[in-house]
Design brief:
The protein is an alpha+beta fold. The chain is 17% helix and 38% strand. It is built from three helices and six strands, in the order H-E-E-E-E-H-E-E-H. The chain starts with 5 loop residues before the first helix and ends with a helix. The model has no long low-confidence stretch (mean pLDDT 86).
Length: 87
């Protein structure tokens, strides 16, 4: 997670470590951190649910997320920024 990003500003926690998976370890997967279970009150059912939701929003819009962290659910609100702010 990028320092200063909207996700970091909202208090989301990114992966704490990485593991390699696949026959030759070619895929790097982040482990730990928050697991998003709901977006705007709807259960996350696909890998690209967050991406598809964000694509329908504009900078300044808010997303209400439910995340699983340290054995319990938490509600987090993220205010979206623009791609230029992250670069």
């Amino acid at each position: 997670m990028e320092d200063g990003s909207p996700a970091a500003a909202a208090g989301l926690k990114g992966p704490t470590r990485a593991v390699r998976i696949g026959v030759f370890g070619q895929v790097r997967l982040g482990v730990g951190g928050d697991l998003i279970t709901e977006i705007d009150g709807k259960p996350v059912e696909t890998r690209d649910a967050l991406t598809r939701t964000v694509e329908q929003k504009k900078p300044g819009d808010k997303l209400d997320l439910t995340v699983w962290r340290a054995g319990r659910s938490r509600k987090v609100t993220v205010t979206l920024g623009s791609a230029a702010e992250v670069l």
